[in-house]
Structures are given as C-alpha cells and as structure tokens.
Input
Amino acid sequence: MEALFRKKSITALLAQADDKEHSLKRALGAMNLTLLGIGGIIGAGIFVLTGQAAAQYAGPAIVLSFIISAVGCAFAGLCYAEFASMIPIAGSAYTYSYATIGELLAWIIGWDLILEYLFGAAAVSVGWSGYVTSFLRDFGVNIPAALSSAPFSFDHVHGWAATGGIINLPAVLIIAVVTGLLVVGIQESATINDFAVFAKVTVVILFIVFGVSYINAENWRPFMPANTGEFGSFGWSGVLRGAGVIFFAYIGFDAVSTAAQEAKNPQRDMPIGILASLAVCTVLYIAVALVLTGIVKFDQLNVPDPIAVGVNAAGPGLFWLRKFIKIGAIAGLSSVMLVLLLGQPRIFYSMSMDGLLPPFFSKVHPKFRTPHVTTMATGAAAAVLGGLFPIGALGEMVSIGTLLAFAIVCASIIVLRRTHPDLPRPFKTPLVPLVPALGVLITVGQMFMLPWATWLRLIVWMAIGLAIYFFYGRHNSRLAAAKADDWNK
Output
C-alpha cells in the first residue's frame, strides 16, 4: 500500500525541468498563454454545444448552466494557478497529483486526462467537419455524407445506431494537419493559434453586437421550460444536466498548465494565462447564449452549426455575417484542436519521464525540441475517434473526464497546504480550504448530473487504465527504482 501512495518531491520535479537532454523550449509569454487558453476554450462549446444543450436540456436557461459551470471552473482555475506557479512542469493535474496525493492517484488522473485532451480533440474535429462541410456547400462543393459523417450515431433513448456513413474524412484530415504543425514546434504553433484566436473572437463579438437588435423576447418565454417528467429534461434538473454537458466548453483553460515547462516566466505568467482566459470566455459564452436563444426558439438549435442557424433566422439583415461566422468557427475549432493536441503529448511525456509509460513516450525531437513521438501517437488516435464517432458521445466523455480532473486538483490544494505549508507559492489560492472545497463540491455534483451511460464508459476506461498501471507502471516507476536502489545499498 505504501508503494501505491509514494510521492515525487517538489525538488525532484523542479530538477526535472532543468534536465537539458529532455528539456522543452521556453518560448511562451503571458499573452501567448492567455491566447492559448482562449484558443482552447472558445470552440465546440460555443459553436456547437450551446445550441444542442439548449435544445435538449435547458432551453434559454442554458445561460444558467454556463454560469454554474463557470463558477466551478473559477474555483478550479484558482487551484490550477497556485499549482502552475509553484510546480511549472509539463503534465498539468497529473504532475500536481504526483507531488501531493501519490503515484496511484497520479496515474488515475493522467489516464483520466486522456479523456479530456485526446477525446476532446476528436470531438472538436467532428464540429470542425460540420462547419467546413457547410461552408463548402455555400460555394457549390458538396462532400458526400458518407465521407463527412460518422458511421455511428448515439442518443440516450435509442443507443447506438448505424448512419450509413463510412468515415468523417474532414475530421481525420484536420487532425493530421494540426498534428504535423505541433511536431514542427511550439512557437510556430502558438503564432498560428494567436491568429486563429483573433479571428474567432472577432466573429463571436460581431454575432453578439449585431445579433442583439434581432432578439425576439418571446423566444425567451418560458426562460426555463417545464420539466417533461424525466430527470435532466428541462426544469432545474435540465439546467444542472446542461451544466455538466457544456462543461466541455471550458476545457481549454487548464491546457495552459500543460505548457508550464515552455513558459518564459511560469511563476508569473501561468496564473495570468489561466485566469484571464477563463474570465474573457465566460463573458462571451453568456452573451452568445442570450443572443442565440433570443434570435431562435431553443427547440430549433439541435444542429451541428447553431450559430449559423441564428444568423439565418435573423433574416437578410445578417446574411453578410453567415460566411464570417463559418470562417470564425473553422479557425476557432482549429485552434482548439491545436491546444488539446498540444496538451495530451506533454502529459504522456511527463508520465514516461516518471517511468509509468515506456521510454519512447518521452523522446524529444533533436531539432524541434517537441515530444514528437507522443504527438504523432495522440494525433493518430484522435483521427480514428473523430472519424468514427459522433460529437455527442465524445463530448460527454470529455466532460466527465474534465470534471474528475478538476475535482482532484481542488482536493490536492487542501492536501498540499497541510503537508507542505512552507513551500514557496508565487500565487496563492484564496480562502483555503473553502475555495477548493467548493470546487470539489460543484465539479463532483456536475458529474452526477451526467447520464449513466457516460459513467459506465468512464468506469470501463478507468479499469483499462488501472490494468496498465498494475502490470507495467507500478513496476517501472522511477520512484520504485529509487526505492530498490536504497534497499540494495
């Protein structure tokens, strides 16, 4: 039992960051990190899931769902900011857990984060495909449905069903392009992300500013549709379930923490990047949700491109914005994939450096100084998932994985304040233990709002992860090797 809860010292973690042979290039400033966070957050959540969650769960009260999720994210963000400033190492919540609550739980969170980043990139690629297909159709270019849709669909009433599709080819291709870009280098990727963020934020603001005058207040009545008699189908239970589902929309801010080892001044810049990106995106989400459900009756928004539907519903006065919306969505979803596919390889990299995964996962390209092996492996897996599965099933897996990660990070702050009260903390989470405890309460509560099928898939996923740990990771851990050396001496 002692071996399962062995911890990596903070000193060892910081020494790992200075390992020249395996070091990553420090090229990101506070603005890069903030834009990286915005790039990760504004994507499928605002361009796809806002409309779908309103139509299926909460109606116009989806605004309340966003606020509930934002509050939970704010508590988690404050905890992430303390960790990222104190332990500026690649690996995000996995690394933090290894230093605070032990190896087994660190492995669990690292395995769980695959749901957030790898499955998240796959889900976003499906949304990207929907907007690209629609954009090309405007110019008379039609991609056959068999090559632009998943061969399977899923809903919680009828389960899985065949669609007649073969593969979502655009989703596969965009994953391949983004993966290639990330292999080339972090600075180049960040520069392209900066331009993509500018494009999509501009489009979102244009939709808000020009859409306000087309709002029909009747579309907000009732603001919270009455519950249908089924838990999670409108009413307050629908708002809570909607909060759990659209939590997927907030996953980008914690991806900032995975780039800590590539930040120029992580102690100062990481908290800025995490909290600033979260604040900006929360305001934009609430505004878009209000405008969208004000222009279009919520029951018409269960479509792949709800923002474009909103523009169409406004009439000829906003037709000029339609193509800009699609361009912004395409650029925005591209930047989300870039952020997520940047984050996952760095978690694999950290787990490999600790011996929990095979050594090839921590290989760094001799020229580009990027974790190229794990980047290509992550890209290949995301391409398969994006090509074969629908966004709804992928998105719910991402949400439950993200919520679990956030809960563990919040709990870890409480543990670390008790076990290592004297460690230097350039940024401190306020009101400990209240803030992290509320973070745990809200995130775990939202997990229980998700459908049982999502929980079942999480349990199966975690069982696979635990099998890998007990058969490989536990025996090859660097901490285990260090313990064996001590015994031999």
User: Anything to note?
Assistant: The longest strand covers residues 152-155. Residues 37 and 253 are 5 Å apart (CA to CA).
